[in-house]
Design brief:
Blueprint lengths: L1 H61 L6 H31 L8 E4 H18 L4 E4 L6 E4 L1 H18 L5 E7 L3 E8 L6 H4 L23 H11 L3 E7 L3 E9 L16
Helix pairs in contact: 1-2, 2-6, 3-4, 4-6
The structure holds adenosine-5'-diphosphate.
Organism: Paramicrobacterium chengjingii
Protein name: Sensor histidine kinase MtrB
Subcellular location: Cell membrane
Amino acid sequence: ETGADELATLARSFNGMADSLQQRIRELADLSLVQQRFVSDVSHELRTPLTTIRLADDVIYDQRHSFAPATTRTAELLHTQVERFELLLDDLLEISRYDAGSVQLELEPTNLATLAQDCIDGMEALAAERGTDIRLVAPGGHNQVEMDPRRIRRIVRNLIGNAIEHGEGGPIVVTVDSNADAVALTVRDYGLGMSEADAEHVFDRFWRADPSRRRTIGGTGLGLAISTEDASLHGGEIDVWSRPAAGSNFRLTLPRTPGGAVMSYPLDRVP
Ligand code: ADP
C-alpha cells in the first residue's frame, strides 16, 4: 500500500512542522515576555533619577526670571521637557501594567452621560483657548453601567483632548446613547481627520500621524493605546471613523455586563 505509506510520511512531516511551529510560537511568546519585562524594568529604573531631576527643575523653574533672558528660555524648555518625560514614563508604566496583566478594575455603577458632562466641564477652558465649543447630546435613556469611573474618565478626556487638538477650532459633539446591551459615547470633531490607512494605526502604541502637522509637542502616542486597553478590560471597545478634512468620530462602547455583547453597528457614517 504505497498510498498509505506516503500518507504516513506526510502525517509525520506534518507533525514535525506543527511541533516546530509550536516551538517557534513559544519562543516568540518568551521573547515578548522578555520585552515586557524590559520595558517595565527600564521604566522603574528611570523613575528615581527623574524624580531628582524634577525637584532640581522645580527650583530652577521657580527662579527663571532672575536669570538672563536666554537662560530663562532654557529653564522653560527644560521644564517642558521634564514634564514630557514624566508623562511618557507614566504611560510606559501603565502599558507595562496591562502587559503584566496586573490591572484591576474598580467597578461601580456610573452614569456615562453624567461622567461625560464632568469631563466636558473640566475641559471647557482648554477648548475655549482654541475657540472650540463642546456640546453634550444625551437623549435620556438608561446610561448607567458598571465601570471603573477613573479609567473611563481618562478615556473620555483623552478622546475630547484629541478632538480639541486636531479639531481646527470647529465644534465638538459628544453623544451618549444606549441600547439593551451596551452604552456608547461618541466624540465627533470636524477638524483635520485622517486617511483610512492612518485610522487603522491610530490605536497602535507610539503611532502618531505626520508629526509636521502637530503644533504642540505634548502627547506620547500612547493615549489611544492605553484607552483601548482600558476599554477592553471592561469588555468594551473603541472604534474610529475618520476622513481627511472631514473630521473624526471616536466611539467608546461599554457592555451592560462586563464581557457582555457590545453594540455592533458599523461606524462608517458621520452622525
Ligand atoms: P497622542 O495624542 O499622544 O499623539 P494618541 O494615541 O491619543 O496619542 O493619538 C495618536 C495619534 O492619532 C495622534 O498623534 C494623531 O495623529 C491621531 N489622532 C488621534 N485623535 C485624532 C483626531 N480626533 N483627529 C485626527 N487625528 C487624531
